[in-house]
Design goal:
Blueprint: H1 10-16, H2 29-45, H3 56-87, H4 91-118, H5 126-129, E1 133-135, E2 142-144, H6 145-163, H7 178-207, E3 211-215, E4 219-223, H8 228-257, H9 259-265, E5 272-279, E6 285-291, H10 299-311, H11 328-350, E7 366-368, H12 369-379, H13 384-394, E8 395-397, E9 412-415, E10 418-420, H14 423-427, H15 431-441, H16 446-465, E11 479-481, E12 487-489, E13 492-495, E14 499-506, H17 514-540, H18 542-545, E15 556-563, E16 572-573, E17 576-580, H19 581-588, E18 592-600, E19 606-615, H20 620-632, H21 635-640, E20 644-650, E21 659-667
Helix pairs in contact: 3-7, 4-6, 4-7, 6-7, 7-17, 8-9, 8-10, 10-11
Length: about 675
């Protein structure tokens, strides 16, 4: 059977056939042309299952543009190949300079952001921080500060993953002209900036069902599948930042005010602190640790625990598989101590002059594995074996070719027995993505996480609905059996006096890349199909379940897919609204949303003040009447949406032919 007959549609081919990928050395435009011709013939003959797929037009436009995208890949890849052949420098040496460039630029960005904050006299809203602009050493123009941090990691991910292809070339050495290699690396880094943005935009339209539109004036616009989708994504990311920050403030105050909580957090931490840190001329770290009379507060640990409280309250503290009995809190504590070392390194860098006036290698920081283990042993009570287990889930080993380098989920870059400190990867960690990585490493599947979330939601629903009438029922069983041959497993049913709410609960991985969003959406779409089938099962057999649900007929029937993260909250899939657990929790609990103003005091304490409270419902009639519309358009989405603007961002150089633009959703200035 022709392999193309097995393809569902053109987009499926685009995503899954290596020669369709313009950012791969296997890209083959001639083979693509032949495949397209064969595909058209098979569709005409009826051998392909779908006679017409409405998405084929959009997918075909993307396929026709792949040679244009491939040109950007070839420019960088060929330059890398030529540079290595010319200098005979081992890729490890190029990676050293790349790490130094990123550390230098991150240090500069951080200084600029701190200066901006210090020059603002009034309170700052998180929405305002999201609009901060800083100078870009790569582009030369002001860019979003958060984006400036993030792109450093994206660039390194691309460059290092390409460089590992050259690791096995024989004859490469460490004898090279430093100035020449620095110049080559700087050009490589600068060139990759455009490639990174172009590749990410291509991945968005390919994996997130987007499209490419040719415009006048020789412009190509890359767009999401609709205008609502990127806005809801941006709102979801903002809510994550806001909720973790709110939890951090609360956690911080509890730590300071409740010694028992502090004792639990510090149980496996020693009373010790780094009193001296030096970086030699080869970038290796040397440190001195001294004992203290009390535990030094570690803000990084509090931030990590706040992320767990906000989005993983359903994960218990049992030891994880294959990690020497470490649990999630243990991993957070070890990571927090690692970040303390990273912060000390950043302080040294910040005292140095800017990148233009300072030797690039001054921004290189690395440590031998045995020294890092010693550091963590001096600050915690974990065994050497436990620390080694911890390192296995946060390291990206360039010689471990079976896995792709991803510094977002594994931020500690390893070459042989040496770790490199990459400031943007360590400075502002995405704990949620790393927690997902840790859980996967421990073989804690998404299905198991979903089951844990289901138990938490049911427990909370019982508690929230206790004051909302005796008719409120939340069955704790999952399987609803009509006969031996017919039954359904239903994650959540809430039956009240005037309504029945049926939901499918899905735990997804924190999405960082377009393919992650695709996989998350795919999982939620499965949930939408399932909840519609299960609703119909209950309605079709209402008489069999009337008694245990306190009646079904005559009640409003609502359905939804509940997700652990808010990235997809507000979208509808096959008519089924998608919400996150916090949106449901807000409605079912008190029905109110509060805005907090937080001030950080010099003694490390914080003062929080409620500046606004929004009521979603005020009585039980409102509760019933507003629930359906709330599921489709949650109040929190309504509140943030006016601050978001749709626009376009140029992703190629001004003089490029053609110029390409990506649709973006950003907070308005």
């Amino acid at each position: 059977m022709n392999r193309l007959i097995q393809q569902r549609n053109l987009r499926h081919m685009l995503r899954n056939q290596a020669h369709f990928n313009p950012f791969s050395d296997k890209f083959d435009s001639e083979k693509i042309s032949k495949d397209l011709e064969t595909y058209r013939e098979l569709k005409k003959s009826g051998e392909v299952i779908n006679d017409y797929d409405p998405d084929d037009f959009n997918a075909l436009n993307i396929i026709e543009a792949t040679p244009l995208f491939n040109a950007y890949f070839k420019q960088l890849y060929d330059y890398m190949k030529d540079a290595i052949n010319k200098t005979q420098a081992h890729p490890e040496n190029i990676i050293k300079y790349l790490v130094a460039i990123v550390n230098s630029q991150t240090s500069d960005i951080n200084r600029e952001v701190v200066d901006k904050i210090e020059n603002i006299n009034s309170a700052i809203r998180l929405e305002e921080i999201a609009t901060f602009q800083v100078h870009s050493a790569v582009e030369g123009n002001p860019i979003n500060a958060i984006g400036a941090f993030e792109i450093q990691i994206d660039l390194l991910n691309i460059l290092i993953n390409y460089l590992v292809y050259f690791l096995d070339i024989k004859g490469l050495h460490d004898n090279f002209n430093e100035d020449e290699l620095e110049h080559i690396t700087r050009y490589m880094f600068s060139t990759s900036n455009v490639l990174c943005v172009v590749k990410d935009s291509y991945d968005i339209v390919t994996w997130e069902d987007g499209r490419i539109v040719e415009m006048p004036n020789n412009e190509i616009h890359l767009k999401y599948k609709d205008d609502t989708y990127p806005v809801l994504q941006r709102i979801g990311l903002h809510r994550i930042e806001r909720n973790v920050l709110a939890s951090k403030v609360e956690f911080h105050n509890i730590y300071l005010e409740n010694s028992r909580i502090a004792d639990v957090i510090n149980l496996k931490r020693k009373k010790a602190v780094v009193t001296e840190l030096r970086i030699n001329n080869r970038g290796f770290i040397d440190f001195q640790i001294s004992k203290t009379t009390q535990h030094i507060i570690n803000e990084e640990i509090i931030t990590g625990l706040a992320a767990i409280v906000s989005f993983y309250p359903h994960i218990n503290l049992e030891p994880l598989k294959n990690l020497n009995r470490l649990n999630i809190q243990d991993l957070i504590i070890l990571y927090g101590e690692l970040l303390s070392l990273s912060n000390s390194i950043e302080n040294i860098f910040s005292e140095q002059e800017s990148i233009k006036d300072s030797k690039l290698k001054c921004y290189l920081a690395r440590i031998k594995k045995k020294e890092l283990i010693s550091y963590l042993q001096n600050l915690t009570t974990y065994s050497k074996a436990q620390i080694e287990s911890f390192l296995t889930v946060i390291e990206s080993d360039i010689y471990l070719k079976k896995s792709r380098i991803n510094l977002w989920s594994r931020p500690l870059l390893k070459t042989r027995d040496v770790y490199f400190f990459i400031l943007p990867a360590l400075k502002a960690p995405n704990y949620l993505q790393m927690i997902d990585e840790w859980l996967e490493s421990a073989q804690y599947s998404l299905k198991d996480r979903g089951t844990a979330l289901e138990k938490l939601i049911k427990s909370d629903m019982v508690r929230f609905l206790a004051s909302k009438g005796s008719y409120a029922i939340v069955p704790q069983k999952q399987k609803f059996i009509l006969s031996k041959k017919e039954s359904e497993e239903i994650d959540l049913i809430v039956s009240m006096e005037k309504m029945v709410f049926i939901a499918e609960i899905k735990n997804i991985k924190f999405p960082m890349e377009p393919r992650d969003y695709h996989n998350g959406y795919k999982r939620l779409k499965e949930g939408a199909e399932q909840v519609l089938r299960k609703r119909d099962f209950i309605l079709r057999n209402a008489s069999s379940f009337e008694a245990e649900l306190n009646g079904i007929r005559g009640k409003q029937i609502h359905v939804a897919v509940i997700c652990n993260y808010p990235h997809f909250t507000g979208i509808e899939i096959d008519g089924v609204p998608v919400i996150d657990y916090m949106v449901l929790q807000t409605y079912m609990n008190k029905g109110e949303i509060t805005d907090l103003k937080v001030e950080f005091n010099e003694d490390d304490s914080t003062d929080a003040e409620i500046i606004n409270t929004k009521r979603i419902w005020t009585n039980i009639d409102d509760f019933y009447n507003n629930f359906g519309s709330y599921l489709k358009n949650p109040t929190i989405i309504e509140q943030i949406d006016p601050f978001i603007e749709l626009g376009k961002s140029r992703i190629t150089m001004e003089e490029a032919d053609p110029r390409m633009f990506m649709q973006v959703a950003e907070f308005s200035s």
